[in-house]
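Example for tutorial group B:
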């Protein structure tokens, strides 16, 4: 099964002016290890697409398949389990918990998934080490640079060994040089793990380094 497949996905919102049809039959398939850039103007539905793909919102039509499982047929608990274990999320603003250390931030999703504490700690140290943060395990986010914070956020997204990574401007708050470095590490880890990635970005240089580019046109996913 493909790690991720969207079939004829529809999503509309009720507004005062009537129904706003944001996704109107979106199709997209990602193979293992495939890294796809989602590049589209603001307001065209990127966040909606990522939320539906990440099982945070249910589509109004069509279906999202995660490793072949039709998410629409699943209850909320099963969908939460997939969100925790099979999908990793990275955001523009890292959303790290400020009162926890880097290591603890990477442990939390593992603990939520039932990993024993010692194993979660070991894995957090291992992943943070892969991102060059071995000397930063006990630092709280406020003591880390922007690039380091974003690396911790990526490490957190990888903590439960997901098969699909969804990212919304993952380096959008970093200066160009730092964004390039962090993005290199993200790509290297994703390729090394054979992760399917859908990465929304406005940065054409980053998009050019991915395997293919898609955009949204009239609520559909088309080659970018
Ligand atoms: P993008 O991420 O490309 O900027 P979004 O997916 O955030 O686009 O939004 C697409 C369109 O849907 C926009 O016109 C936005 O205002 C609208 N929209 C998004 N979420 C909601 C919502 N919860 N209720 C009503 N309209 C929404
Ligand atoms: P938990 O109870 O473990 O926090 P959630 O259902 O809230 O479970 O979140 C599960 C996953 O979904 C987490 O990895 C979280 O980062 C992600 N998530 C939660 N809310 C959002 C959101 N608004 N947009 C994108 N991802 C989200």
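The residue assignment follows.
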């Amino acid at each position: 099964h493909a790690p991720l497949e969207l079939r004829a996905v529809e999503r509309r919102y009720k507004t005062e002016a009537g129904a706003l049809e944001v996704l109107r039959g979106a199709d997209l398939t990602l193979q293992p290890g495939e890294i796809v850039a989602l590049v589209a103007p603001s307001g065209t539905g990127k966040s909606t697409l990522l939320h539906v793909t990440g099982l945070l919102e249910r589509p109004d039509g069509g279906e999202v398949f995660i490793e072949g499982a039709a998410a629409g047929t699943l209850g909320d608990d099963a969908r939460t389990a997939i969100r925790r274990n099979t999908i990793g999320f990275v955001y523009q603003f890292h959303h790290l918990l400020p009162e926890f250390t880097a290591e603890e931030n990477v442990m939390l999703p593992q603990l939520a998934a039932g990993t024993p504490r010692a194993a979660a700690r070991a894995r957090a140290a291992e992943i943070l080490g892969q991102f060059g943060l071995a000397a930063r395990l006990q630092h709280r986010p406020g003591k880390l640079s922007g690039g380091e914070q974003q690396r911790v956020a990526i490490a957190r997204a990888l903590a439960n060994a997901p098969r699909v990574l969804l990212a919304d401007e993952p380096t959008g708050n970093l200066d160009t040089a730092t964004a390039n470095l962090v993005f290199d590490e993200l790509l290297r880890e994703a390729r090394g793990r054979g992760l399917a990635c859908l990465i929304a970005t406005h940065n054409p240089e980053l998009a050019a380094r991915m395997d293919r580019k898609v955009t949204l046109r009239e609520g559909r996913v088309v080659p970018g």
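The two ends are 25 Å apart (CA to CA). Compare this with the pattern of hydrophobic and polar residues in the output above.
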